[in-house]
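S.,

Sequence below, as promised.
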Amino acid sequence: MNTVNKEYTLSSAAAKDTAEIINLYNNTYEGSYTDPTFVSFNALLHEILKKNKKVYVARDPEDRVVACLSFLYDPINKIAKAGSAVVAKSAQGKNLTRFLIEYGIEDIQKNTKGISLLYITTRTVHRVAQHLTDKMGFKKLGIFPNAHKSTNYETHVLGGLYFDGLESRYTDFEQHPHIKPLFDIVKSECNLPDIPLSKKFEKKEFHTKVPTLEFILAQEFVKTNYKKAQENFEIDLGFFPFHEPTAMITSPGGSIQVYVSINKIDKHCVITGLKLDKDVSFTDLFLKVSSMLRDQGVRYIEMIVRAHRLNIIEKTIQAKFIPCGYVPGFQLSDGKRYDYAVFSRSFEILEFNDIELTGVSSLYLKEYIKAWSEISLDKYLKESL
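The prediction came back faster than expected:
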C-alpha cells in the first residue's frame, strides 16, 4: 500500500472491492463503458483473482475507491498492458492515473520477472490522457481509428514505454512498402537504426478455392480446441497477448480454423490465430472471414503480423486490412525480440469529429488515411478522383 498527496492511498484491488469498482465505472461512464470486465461483477471478480492480471485502486480519505487501473502481464515475453483507467469526477486533477501506472510498474517489476515493454492505448477525445503518457515517456507507436464505440466512436493512440529489449531486436529484414512509413515514425520516436525498404519480395500465390466455412460460438469448446491446436504447433499468427478466442470460423473438416475474440458490447474483434490449409489463398480466406464477422455484427477487426513476414503482410493488405501501428521488440523468442505490424479493418464510416491528437499521432492518422485510400478504394473510384 502506498499513500500519495497525503490524501489518496494506492493498493491492489481485493475481492471485496468488486462491487465498488463496478459502480465507479458505471457512474463515471454512465453505463457506456466498453470493457466487459468492468461491467460484470463475476467477470471482474474473476479478473481480480487471476495471476496474470492486476487491478489497482486509489482510495480517498474516506476509504472510497475513486480511481482504478488494470495491468495484464505476460512473463514469457516480459510485456505488460495498462488500461481501463477511470477516475471519479470528485478526484480528477490529482494525477491519480499517473500514480496508479507508476505503482503498477513498481509492483510488476518487483514481484515478477520484470517488464521490457509496457504498452497502453489512450483515448483521443481529449488531450489530457495523451499529455500524461507523453510526460511519462511513452513512445507513440500507432493509431486505431474508430476502434471502440461508447457514446460515440473513439479513436485510440497506441503508446509503448520501453525498459529494455530494443537492443536484442531481430532486424535482418527489409520493410514492406506499406509498413515502412509507419516504421519511419517509430524509428524517430524510439531512436532506432534504419531498416531499408524492400523493393522486391516473394509474392506467393495460392488459388485453391476457400471451402465452406461455419461460425462456432461455443466459447469453452473454442478455447479447448485452440489450446490443442497450439500444443500441436498448428497455429499461425497466434501471438496476440491478453486475448482469448471467444469464437472460431472453421471448415467442415477442420483444415481451416480462424480464432477470434469478439467484444459483445461494442463489437470490437481481434484475430487471435489461425490454422491454415497452405494451398488456400490467404487473401481470399480473410476476405471471406471479414464478411462473416461483419454478418455477425462485428464493426472493427484488428490483427498483428511479424514485420519481417512480407508475403503475409502483402496478403493481409490485399484483404483490405489497413496498417495502423508498428511495435518494435514486441515478442521474445529464442533470445530475440521481434517487431510487429498492426492492422485494422473497420466497417463503419470513419468519424474524427471529436478527435484531439498530440505529438506525432497526427502523422499516424495521415498515413492511415493515405493507406486506406490506396487499399480500400476500388480501382474505378480511385481513377475517377
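The chain has two domains: 2-168, 180-323+360-384.

Coffee later?
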